[in-house]
Amino acid sequence: MDPSEVTVPPLKDLTIDNITDNVKLINGQCPDPRFKYILERLVQHLHDFARETRLSQDEWMTGIQFLTSVGQICTDVRQEFILLSDILGLSLLVDSIDHPKPPASTEGTVLGPFHSHEAQSEPNGAQIAHDPDGEPCLVLCTLKDTSGKPIDGVKIDIWETDSKGFYDVQYAGREGPDQRAVMHSDEEGVFWFKAIVPVPYPIPHDGPVGK
Question: Which domain of life does the UniProt lineage start with (predicted)?
């Protein structure tokens, strides 16, 4: 970029109190009104957080190192940043804001960090879990609209952990997906499958978020 073509608004000498306004002036040149607004609010809240907590350089460096390690552990089947968003409650908050539900409808939820697109389409009655240590469980469901009318042909994406509380993608050398399936409701809105009884499971401790 030619420096002569860069337009910089008049800035003040930086202080703790006015640095936020200076950053907003720079970002205020963003041509997208919505993105400009989001940037301004993000900067405002981040700066207010730093001022309120009197954040030190060492503390912020610890934060930077943490965020760096979160990015480094991400793979095509593991999204540690989604896990971080989940444990901060941000994922569900954003989903609730972006997808408000009408009365009498099921509450929304989030995909979480271990959802994958590897699940195979299965017919009703399929066995989706093959953990010999799991307690067998028959799952029978009916999808209905808010007036109680069954809905057919709906795609349902299902996944669960094994009996030890681990998802298939957490195992090195796995041969393929397990405890996962994609199904469709029938003309009566019904779908059913054979799985194992869900068990409590912690946040994975092999990554920076769990630690």
Answer: Eukaryota
Q: Phi, psi (5° rounding) for residue 194?
A: -105, 125
192 exposure class (CB count in 10 Å sphere: 0-12, 13-18, 19+): middle
Largest CA distance in the chain: 70
| Long-range contacts formed by 166-173: CB under 8 A, 24+ apart | 166/201, 167/114, 169/77, 169/78, 169/114, 169/116, 170/78, 170/114, 170/204, 170/206
Structure token pair of residue 156: 């349902």
- Specify the number of domains making up the chain: 2
Share above pLDDT 90 across residues of the chain, in percent, rounded to a whole number: 68
Which CATH number characterizes residue 146's domain? 2.60.130.10
| pTM of this structure | 0.70
The total number of residues shown for the chain amounts to 211
- 113: tokens are 């960090």
